[in-house]
């Protein structure tokens, strides 16, 4: 892993995501190295030509959050990195940001795959309007390890359980849903006592990671390759349209709180 410490003026930015005022990305890059990650566009913006997941820029920032920019706003941590990646244990950039944030009345959404978030329960419990989103798209840890690094399925389930036990609003983001490989019903059956809400996000393939994922499907799950080609090369949206309707009916019948997320 190539680690760089960089000086920046601010660690927050205005958000283009619906319902989010500002995003906080304490790092550039992400050691999770998810094969399907849409944030690989960050490489071009930050001048990196290394493979996604092989570099991490640690933001050194003296910016102090002010009440006027925080009160009543909704913040997302993070939109293009995992703020609790393995190196946060050393650098504590996320923890130091949280220490500033807890002074104010605001809404915070934290998205992560890593159980390091449990280190900061003391701070998280001081944030009144907090939601923690953990992503999971399979119960098969072999499949998980082939498409992303670091955080096992067991560790994510443990994280959800401990967060909920501590009174923190937990959301499971079943994302990204890989056609024919993600069994959302089994995931819900395994987690419904651990979370208050579900999010669903379909696998969206663009640019360089589109080639990687399709190559992976062809090599490891060749029986589904023609179906993937139909969806991602011929732009046939029938599979996801039908799946969306199926998920809606299932969640409604099970009285589950849920939303669909979109990168668009």
Describe the structure.
- The protein is an alpha/beta fold.
- Helix content is 35%, strand content 22%.
- It has one domain (2-260): TIM Barrel, CATH 3.20.20.
- The chain is built from eleven helices and eleven strands.
- The strands form two sheets. Strands 2-3-6-7-8-9-10-11 form an eight-stranded mixed beta sheet, with helices on one face.
- Helix 9 packs antiparallel against helix 10.
**Tally of DSSP β-strands:** 11
Indicate the CATH topology.
TIM Barrel
Compute the number of structural domains: 1
Mean pLDDT: 93
- Helix percentage range: 25-40%
Largest beta-sheet characterization = 8 strands, mixed
List keywords for this structure.
264 residues, 35% helix, alpha/beta
In short:
The chain is α/β, with parallel strands linked by helices and 264 residues long. Helices cover 35% and strands 22% of the residues.
What's the arrangement of secondary structure elements?
Layout: E1 2-8, E2 12-14, E3 22-24, E4 27-28, H1 42-46, E5 55-61, H2 67-70, E6 74-77, H3 88-91, H4 93-101, E7 107-112, H5 121-124, E8 129-136, H6 141-147, H7 153-165, E9 169-177, H8 184-191, E10 197-202, H9 207-220, H10 225-232, H11 238-253, E11 258-260
Parallel strand pairs: 1-5, 3-6, 6-7, 7-8, 8-9, 9-10, 10-11
Antiparallel strand pairs: 2-3, 4-5
Helix pairs in contact: 9-10
């Amino acid at each position: 892993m190539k680690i760089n410490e960089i000086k920046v003026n601010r660690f927050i930015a205005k958000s283009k995501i619906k319902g989010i005022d500002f995003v906080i990305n304490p790092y550039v890059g992400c050691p999770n190295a998810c094969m399907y990650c849409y944030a690989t566009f960050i490489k071009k913006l930050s001048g990196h030509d290394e493979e996604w997941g092989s570099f991490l820029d640690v933001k050194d920032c003296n910016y102090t959050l002010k009440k006027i920019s925080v009160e009543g706003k909704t913040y997302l941590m993070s939109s293009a990195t995992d703020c609790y990646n393995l190196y946060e244990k050393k650098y504590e950039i996320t923890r130091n940001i949280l220490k500033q944030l807890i002074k104010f009345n605001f809404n915070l959404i934290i998205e992560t795959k890593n159980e390091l978030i449990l280190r900061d329960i003391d701070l998280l419990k001081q944030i009144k309007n907090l939601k923690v989103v953990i992503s999971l798209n399979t119960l098969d840890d072999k499949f998980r390890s082939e498409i992303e690094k670091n955080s096992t399925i067991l560790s994510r389930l443990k994280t959800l359980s401990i967060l909920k036990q501590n009174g923190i609003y937990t959301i499971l983001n079943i994302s990204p849903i890989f056609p024919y490989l993600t069994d959302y019903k089994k995931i819900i059956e395994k987690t419904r006592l651990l979370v208050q809400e579900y999010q669903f996000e379909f696998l969206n393939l663009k640019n360089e990671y589109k080639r990687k994922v399709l190559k992976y499907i062809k090599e490891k799950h060749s029986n589904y390759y023609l179906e993937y080609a139909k969806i991602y090369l011929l732009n046939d949206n029938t599979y996801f349209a039908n799946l969306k309707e199926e998920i809606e009916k299932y969640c409604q019948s099970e009285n589950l709180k849920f939303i669909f997320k979109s990168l668009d």
